[in-house]
Amino acid sequence: MNDNQWMSLLGLANRARKITSGEELTIKEIRNGKAKLILLSADASVNTTKKVTNKCKSYEVPYKLVENRELLGHAIGKDARVVVAVLDDGFAKKLKSLLD
Q: Residue 60: enclosing H or E segment and its boundaries?
């Protein structure tokens, strides 16, 4: 997998205001049906991972694991982020194909 490709795409989605990050906001977006794809850091806590993946499953939102929280945060020009929700179909599809 090419880190740079998905990271720059996520950066683009961020600038387009098509993402949200952080556990609470992400879960809110899953609940109200806006989240199209969840990016979860592989080093998230067991608790967070369980909470987010369970939400994804019950609302049928796809999720992908990314290497670590530093990469995820860096991609959107912020500090370490554990979870990011992509709120746009186009970005979600493209990111999914890059992360598969």
A: none
Per DSSP (E only), the strands in 1-100 are 19-21, 37-41, 63-66, 83-86
Q: Tokens 């049928």 belong to which residue?
A: 60
Q: pLDDT tens digit string along 39-70?
A: 999 999 999 999 999 999 999 999 999 999 99
Cβ neighbours around 57 below 10 Å, total: 11
Quote the CA–CA distance of 8 and 14 in Å, as a whole number: 10
CB atoms within 10 A of CB 80: 13
Sheet holding 83-86, edge to edge: 19-21, 83-86, 37-41, 63-66
Between the two ends of the chain, the Cα-to-Cα distance in Å is: 8
Cα 18-58-72 angle, rounded to 5 deg: 40
Cβ contact 84:38 at 8 Å: yes
